[in-house]
Amino acid sequence: MEKLEALIFKRYITELKTQNPHAFENLPATTQNATIEQLAFRYDVFLLDAFGTLYNHNHFVYPGALSMFRYLKSKGKSVRLVTNAASKPIELLLKDLWLMGFDFRFEDVFSSGSLLIENNQKWKHTEALYIGKDTGASFLEAAGIQSNADTMNPVVIVSSVSQDKTLILKAINLLKKKGAVLIVLNPDPWAPTPDAKRVPVCGAFAQYLAEDSQAKIHYLGKPFPELFHKALAAFSKQNKAIMIGDTLGTDVLGATVAGIDTALVLGRNTPIETVSESENILGIRPHYYLKGF
Fold first, then answer.
1. Rounded-to-integer distance, Cα 282 and Cα 10, Å
2. Residue 282: Cβ within 10 Å count
């Protein structure tokens, strides 16, 4: 785990403990190895991470991911996608998913970007500097927020990394103003590439933007529990749920805090050789290491 990555995850943990001091009382003491068949026997509802767990850039589908998805569906399991991919509206994300063979429905997909709509009903922001892909700006529009690169309003919303130096400098200066707000639509600090390398992404970029500022930061998405609660709202407590993801500090941490069992896919965003060290750094571990896909 990168030093900055660990720092960001510890920041999330501190905030989660502030929100709910009892959130970390029922952590698993040990982790079991499991197959998807064993998990299908034990659980009714499967929450799946998207990028890094099912697929990667350019419609790269991880070996076994599609067969896992189809196996769960064939067993009558309820399958939901819980993602921090806030660079695309759900409609466009669905098109990509279908092209890769994952036939999710609109109501099956829960994106961190969509949380902006409900949260802005209380924040009431009307204008912001937006940093991210053009497609991600649809979440701002749906929330009633105008994207304005020339705004003097100290509100910055970020959904992905940018190389635009002028825009970055503008964001840094805005965030140093009194009453500044930074809204992070994708808290993931690091992500895997198809060749198993790891690169800094939106969460790390947001940390850079906010450095040396006193800006209020709002994180929308995993590991914060709001997205998990929305994904499970249609189910009763009798439906046993599990979260499957590739990242210890978002998928596992967030689901655990939300009271959901977890399975961690190793070798992508969580290297096998460093997983024990990472668990010790964060004080968190999954219920299962997922084998067989």
1. 7
2. 18
The first and second tokens of residue 157, run together, are 């919303």
Kindly report whether the global pTM for this prediction surpasses the value 0.85. Answer: yes
Task: List the one residue out of 138, 139, 177, 134 whose CA is nearest residue 155.
Answer: 177
Contact yes or no for 221/86 (Cβ under 8 A): yes
Can you tell me the distance from the alpha carbon of 13 to that of 248, in angstroms, rounded to the nearest whole number?
12
What pLDDT score does 196 carry? Answer: 78
Pairing of strands 60-61, 55-56: antiparallel
User: What are the phi and psi torsion angles at 70 (to 5°)?
Assistant: -70, -35
For 148-205, write each residue's pLDDT tens digit. Answer: 999 999 999 999 999 999 999 999 999 999 999 999 999 999 999 988 789 999 999 9
Tell me how far apart the alpha carbons of residues 158 and 128 are, in angstroms, rounded to a whole number.
Answer: 10
Distance, CA of 61 to CA of 58 (rounded, Å): 9
With tokens 């992905």, the residue in question is 160
Lowest mean pLDDT among 37-46, 243-252, 270-279: 270-279
The token pair at 16 is: 């989660």
